[in-house]
Specification:
Elements: H1 4-14, H2 17-23, E1 28-34, E2 39-47, E3 53-60, H3 65-85, E4 91-98, H4 101-104, H5 107-119, E5 124-128, H6 134-141, H7 161-180, E6 189-193, H8 197-208, E7 212-216, H9 220-230, E8 233-234, E9 247-250, H10 259-264, E10 269-270, H11 281-291, E11 294-295, H12 298-301, H13 304-313, H14 318-326, H15 328-342, H16 346-365
Parallel strand pairs: 3-4, 3-5, 6-7, 6-9, 7-8, 9-10, 10-11
Antiparallel strand pairs: 1-2, 2-4
This protein binds nicotinamide-adenine-dinucleotide.
Nicotinamide-adenine-dinucleotide binds next to helix 7 and helix 8.
Length: about 375
């Protein structure tokens, strides 16, 4: 499989979207544009072997189109793995809307986006992600039924973030059990980077268990508010990655685990909610293995939100969703042990399980 660097080089050399899609065998990419409303979006469908492609919509002020395309391709592929490893009958997809959500997001923009989602006739089902909230999903819902994570008042499951945070907490505890012999997080120095919808809920669990939690976010007001509410300590140092910590929980954006950060990190575990934490899964997965840092695969431990919205498709039940998310604990433990016994990276061990399921179910499907 091509490394991120190789993909970048190939894309720059060819300038071809289809060539970029073919690297990880994406099925379909849809470019959406509306000059009047100011909507520029990309929907990527990676693989629909297990079911319709479900994945959130991210709104972000990308520097250019190729950055947005790269992100949506990476994120949609991650969703394929996330659904497969979690035993869900879903494929992998994702959408990005290009622009600053605080400046250009309107009802019209979200409804126009909803029309594009509808045009895919259920092959892609959307939900919220960074920069998008439940209110936005209400607007999308006005134009399409292929949407999840809508407000409870409209019969949906609401914000999936609390379930995601619970799953991350389960994955972190399983990692602690593997690394320290006990899953107690009491007294552990845990650094949570990104105090958004998921980070904030995760901090709650950690503080309640008696962990020594340090928090950091680029938005100062979120930090102050969270510190006041939970008693967590606000980061006051210069370099996040040089901080003294046992566990690093990346809960902001992806690619924070890279050559630079790994060279500085002194933690024994990385377990967080952010998607695509490893800048390059081959290079940085191996660097973590060599350095003896336990990395809990992101697409496994942050699957709680997907598990939650999947449940919405079949008649929502919060208790069942939480119960399913709690299974992340056993699965994470088993993957960490497999990686250790086979001396492979944790991402390789997790991907092998997901790929095996897709391959096997693919064979079932071709029989009718
Ligand atoms: P969010 O937008 O609510 O929060 C993200 C937070 O990260 C924001 O407060 C932002 O200010 C902060 N941030 C951005 N850049 C930062 C930086 N460089 N340093 C520190 N903080 C920074 O998003 P969320 O819903 O909490 O999701 C967090 C991550 O988890 C994302 O990567 C998302 O894709 C992933 N994820 C979320 C869910 C979910 O259910 N919400 C599910 C799976 C994965």
């Amino acid at each position: 499989m091509a490394t991120t660097q190789e993909i970048k080089e190939m894309t720059q050399a060819s300038g071809s979207v289809i060539k970029q899609m073919s690297i990880n065998n994406h099925e379909q990419v849809v470019f959406c544009n509306d000059n009047e409303i100011g909507l520029k979006a990309i929907i990527a469908i990676h693989n629909t072997t297990l079911g319709p492609a479900l994945g959130g919509t991210r709104m972000w002020a990308y520097n250019n189109e190729s950055e947005a395309l790269n992100d949506v391709l990476r994120l949609s592929r991650g969703m394929t793995y996330k659904a497969a490893i979690s035993g869900l009958n879903l494929g992998g997809g994702k959408a990005v809307i290009i622009g600053d959500s605080k400046k250009i997001k309107t009802e019209a923009l979200m409804r126009r986006f909803g029309k594009f989602v509808n045009s895919l006739a259920g092959k892609y089902i959307t939900a919220e992600d960074v920069g998008i909230g439940t209110k936005d999903m209400e607007y999308v819902k006005m134009e399409t039924n292929h949407v999840t994570g809508i407000p409870e008042s409209m019969g949906g499951s609401g914000d999936p973030s609390p379930v995601t945070a619970f799953g991350v907490y389960m994955g972190m505890k399983a990692s602690a059990k593997f690394a320290y012999g006990s899953d107690s997080l009491s007294g552990k120095k845990i650094f949570v980077q990104g105090i958004g919808n998921v980070g904030e809920n995760l901090v709650d669990y950690l503080v309640k268990e008696g962990a020594k939690v340090t928090i950091y976010d680029i938005h100062e007001e979120k930090l102050t508010e969270c510190a006041k509410k939970t008693g967590a300590t606000v980061f006051a140092g210069k370099d996040v990655y040089e901080t003294d910590m046992d566990i690093y929980a990346p809960c902001a954006l992806g690619a924070t685990v890279n050559s630079d950060s790994i060279s500085k990190l002194k933690c024994s575990i990385i377990a967080g909610a952010a998607n695509n934490q490893l800048e390059d899964e081959n290079i940085h997965g191996k660097m973590l293995l060599d350095k003896g840092i336990v990395w809990a695969p992101d697409f496994l431990i942050n699957a709680g939100g997907l598990i939650n919205v999947y449940s919405e498709l079949h008649g929502y039940n919060r208790e069942a969703a939480m119960n399913n998310a709690s299974k992340i604990y056993d699965l994470a433990g088993s993957i960490l042990r497999t990686a250790q016994s086979e001396n492979i990276t944790t991402i390789a061990a997790a991907k092998a399980i997901a790929e095996k399921r897709i391959e096997e179910i693919g064979k079932v499907k071709i029989s009718f």
